[in-house]
Amino acid sequence: MNKKLPPRPRSKPAPRTGLRPALPREVRIVGGQWRRSKLPVADRPGLRPTPDRVRETLFNWLGNDLTGWRVLDAFAGSGALGFEAASRGAAEVLLLESDATLVASLDASRQRLGASTLRVQRADARAWLAACASARFELILLDPPFDSGWALSAATAAARLVSDGGFVYVELAEPLAEPPPGLLPHRSARAGAVHFQLFRRA
User: Fold this and answer.
1) What is the pLDDT of residues 130-143, one digit of tens each?
2) What is the pTM of this model?
């Protein structure tokens, strides 16, 4: 006579901790001379590196080859955007970052890769943009802390500093409803919670 086995106990669902998903500890450069090189990502408040596919899309929009371009990465963070531009031939890349820990990490990556066209400066990006007067960049990259609400004011300031025909890139939680004064919409897309827009100076 076959014995009926008792039902197997159901496994309990894992408790919800309420913690945000873990951020990557490093990002990789997706194109150019340092393709596949990795940059560390420190655990700092508001730091959310631009995903690989977003950077790939952006630089496809820009034509991939940035030879001779002058580039500003105003909220550098992990440096993913600025190093990507330098890797693709930019003649001058300035990274602005206010966090001393991140500045040290960016400078270490610069030395490790031998990125002679890239410079790291500790500065408050919004104050720096407001104080700079000359239109000297072909590309300005703006990825302020997520949900900070700084995107529009930063893009408005950047519009004065980009050369004729140059580009301003903005990454944010919600797209700008209207282009900043002096800029025209060029391309835009979304990847998950990230909206990214590319504007061009008329």
Assistant:
1) 999 777 899 999 99
2) 0.85
